[in-house]
UniProtKB/TrEMBL annotation:
<dbReference type="GO" id="GO:0005524">
    <property type="term" value="F:ATP binding"/>
</dbReference>
<feature type="domain" description="Sigma-54 factor interaction">
    <location>
        <begin position="147"/>
        <end position="375"/>
    </location>
</feature>
<dbReference type="InterPro" id="IPR002078">
    <property type="entry name" value="Sigma_54_int"/>
</dbReference>
<keyword id="KW-0067">ATP-binding</keyword>
<dbReference type="GO" id="GO:0043565">
    <property type="term" value="F:sequence-specific DNA binding"/>
</dbReference>
<keyword id="KW-0597">Phosphoprotein</keyword>
<dbReference type="InterPro" id="IPR058031">
    <property type="entry name" value="AAA_lid_NorR"/>
</dbReference>
<dbReference type="Pfam" id="PF02954">
    <property type="entry name" value="HTH_8"/>
</dbReference>
<keyword id="KW-0547">Nucleotide-binding</keyword>
<dbReference type="InterPro" id="IPR025944">
    <property type="entry name" value="Sigma_54_int_dom_CS"/>
</dbReference>
<dbReference type="InterPro" id="IPR025943">
    <property type="entry name" value="Sigma_54_int_dom_ATP-bd_2"/>
</dbReference>
<dbReference type="Pfam" id="PF25601">
    <property type="entry name" value="AAA_lid_14"/>
</dbReference>
<dbReference type="GO" id="GO:0006355">
    <property type="term" value="P:regulation of DNA-templated transcription"/>
</dbReference>
<dbReference type="Pfam" id="PF00072">
    <property type="entry name" value="Response_reg"/>
</dbReference>
<feature type="domain" description="Response regulatory">
    <location>
        <begin position="9"/>
        <end position="123"/>
    </location>
</feature>
<dbReference type="GO" id="GO:0000160">
    <property type="term" value="P:phosphorelay signal transduction system"/>
</dbReference>
<dbReference type="InterPro" id="IPR003593">
    <property type="entry name" value="AAA+_ATPase"/>
</dbReference>
Amino acid sequence: MTTTLAGGVVLIADDEEPILDLLRDILEPEGASVRTARSGREALAALEAEEPDVAIFDVRMPPPDGLTLLKTLRERGIDLPVLIITAQDSSTMTIEAMQRGAYDYLGKPFDPDEILHTVQRALEHRRLTRRVLDLERQFSQDPRDILIGRSGPMQHVYKLIGRVAGSDATVLITGESGTGKELVAHVLHRNSARREGPFIAVNCAALPETLLESELFGHEKGAFTGAMAQRKGRFEQAAKGSIFLDEIGEVSPTTQKKLLRVLQERTFERVGGNALLKANVRVIAATNRDLIEGARAGNFREDLYYRLNVVNIHMPALRERNDDIPLLIDHFLRKHRFGGGEAAPISDAAMELLQNHAWPGNVRQLENTIERAVVLAQGGLIGPEHLLLDRTLTVHEQMLDSALARLLTVAPLPQLLEELRARLLTLALERCHGDRAAAARMLGISEALFTSVMSDE
Ligand SMILES: Nc1ncnc2c1ncn2[C@@H]1O[C@H](COP(=O)(O)OP(=O)(O)OP(=O)(O)O)[C@@H](O)[C@H]1O
Ligand SMILES: [Mg+2]
């Protein structure tokens, strides 16, 4: 029989020396590292010193006995697979062991093949649960790393991230404000080979030109007034990790030139210094500007644009992925709980309003709206009154705007309003199949007013 015990650490606790020897003789030749304990207490000490991959406990041994030990482990949240040694005729003991969360049991007298097989299964189980835990940790534990959305445009983003995360390629993330550019930069880093290294974000729009240069590249002592000591720049701090250059479109021509050099030669100098430093970083940049347009207008170096745009990830505006809004709302309700309680519920009416909103500020604006609504509703049911949406920005009003824009120069205002009113009355009447009362209700006026306005026409 072939086994894969190699590298597995097995702890055996039993007060009978011959049993310890027997199990050791079965497991060690297959590659397992065996640790032994002669009492429950010794087993606990061994567990504290090193967590094994599998534990084997005898039910009867100096305290604590095998079942008590198992209970203690589970209470401490240690979930390694535990095998319990029972006499084969003791079915009640076996049942109790399984109820307490034993992985399996080994019946005496021992069958070496069966033991090997059971330990091997337990080890494999252990490896699998570890792997699942690792993956969970990697993908979901840090809320900063969760990208929500299943729509087509987001699927496209995920594919791109998957394709480029592993390489060191420079990535330019584009998209409107609040679409998640920084979040994507972070996710890229967390899924790259540099994930153990630092992720350094620099907002290039936040600092004036000279300060930005020393922020990025550092400076030597005395490089300028106020440079009291040598200072490492962000490129140095990001060594072995990633640097995120946010708002790259705002960078001055001089700094653009220096950035171009970093990207071309992977070297830079501190401000006021001449030592050539190596840039061991992956560069991720973001902008909500059209850099090609910037290049055409002479504000942005075209060569730098191409160096940055090796891979482009374009973030869709929220209005291009309306389907994702309920998922995002759900996510933000969980993220922003009121006083640490349950995620707040939301009314259908509020949900509908949120889904029909145009969201010029994209996901960030949606998140802010939800966060504020949770507070206004004090953790209770969120209704439309808690959303405080800027009414001029609803999809409905945008549609109205674009329709009206075409009418702007068609006729003088009084005439236009007359026509509009007449048209709306007729439309409502048509919709309601000639029922005046219903048409009036649809327009939110009384039937008497409806009739009088109609007869005016
Ligand atoms: N797909 C998403 N899933 C979950 N949260 C998101 C998503 N997109 C954005 N967010 C959240 O929305 C907020 C804004 O995102 P982020 O700061 O990444 O946007 P941005 O594109 O960098 O905006 P700006 O251009 O204004 O800097 C953050 O709190 C972020 O966590
Ligand atoms: Mg940003």
